[in-house]
Amino acid sequence: MLKLVLSALSLSLITSVATAQVVDIDGGNSWNGWQAVGDSQSASWVRGALDRTFTIYSAYFVLDAEQSVTGTRLVNNTVGNGTSYTGDDAASLFAGSWQAGDRIVGIGIRYVGATRGTTWFFHLDAGGANILPASSFGAGDGAFSFDVGDTSSYIVNLAPIGRGQVRQYSVWYGFSQNGSPQEGNYIIPYGQSPSLAMPVRSFTVLDAGSSNLSKSMQYFVNIDAVLRANGGATYGDADFGPNSRFAFWEGSQVSGTQFTQQSFRIPQLQQRRTVLNGRPALGATVTLRHMLPLGLPGHIAGFLFSPPFAGEVPVTVPGFAVDGLLRVDPTAFPVFGVQLTDGVALPSLPVSVPNDPTLVGAQLECQSFDLSPAWTFYLAANDVTLSVVAN
Q1: 132: which of 143, 284, 343, 348 fits an S-S bond (Cβ 3.0–4.6 Å)?
Q2: What is the pLDDT of residues 301-332, one digit of tens each?
Q3: Cα separations (Å) of 229 from 93, 197, 198, 234, 249?
Q4: Can you identify the CATH homologous superfamily of domain 2-15+269-387?
């Protein structure tokens, strides 16, 4: 059966990215799939007010085709009810520059007590050296500047149209010592109104009875949208890397401008994962992906296949270290899609399923891996099963 299915499936190679995981996207009513970074008075504080209170979250996931925005979107130009979200809509996740299978990183803010927000600047410090927290909460030595390739997204609730949406995505092409746009060394490639061409999306929940005060905010950057032609290749957005930092300016402009700035490292992947994106129906193409941390160029990656295998076994390879357990049949696992990593894009393998009814019910197990220059095999912490179904 293995030979039959492998010969029937057309396997080819592309350089792309992925890992699938459904997370809560609802403006901040819930936070499943996110991880807490700290609070407004923790080690992420750069400068600003000392009495603003909120919790900070981050997320790092791949946009699954089944990802949705939960809850109800607030009708434009109406006051909030405390639960419905505003900002982008569910369709925006798969429109414009965004595609299923893209890597997404997110920042979340959940306001606590009486603190609320109306205005945000979300920043990417690609090199991780320009926007740095103060040595302690309240100290005056936090760093704030932009360098070539850093980006900033501007969101404001005070405009009647586009509340909670990114209105301006700026890319710096020269150094800015104090992060000031007035220095004139940035471009606005998508204009100054919300656009699905931007590599960013955002969602927020307004306070009940308010048209501009947010109780929570979720902001997302699509790494792969930045890497494609509509992003970095055209406008100079910098690549994400292991030292990249997220930062944001948040504040309220309703009763005098009160603000803080925060900065923290983009979360790194804790375990390597094999991801199947798509449904292996007759005539369809699905994509297998190997998710590994950013900033690891020169690794040899690939995909192991076998008939269905229920167990997991330790494996030894003479002359090599092995990290992880083998989750495919140890007696038969051909390797496909061998490729070198570049530290940014992640290994991918599209699998085209022939439109042959005799294949319905056929199954293959797949586990991805990478081999480091230090001769360590890293096996994904999971495997996936391709089960062919009728279209």
Answers
A1: 143
A2: 999 999 999 889 999 999 999 999 999 999 98
A3: 18, 11, 12, 6, 28
A4: Immunoglobulins (2.60.40.10)
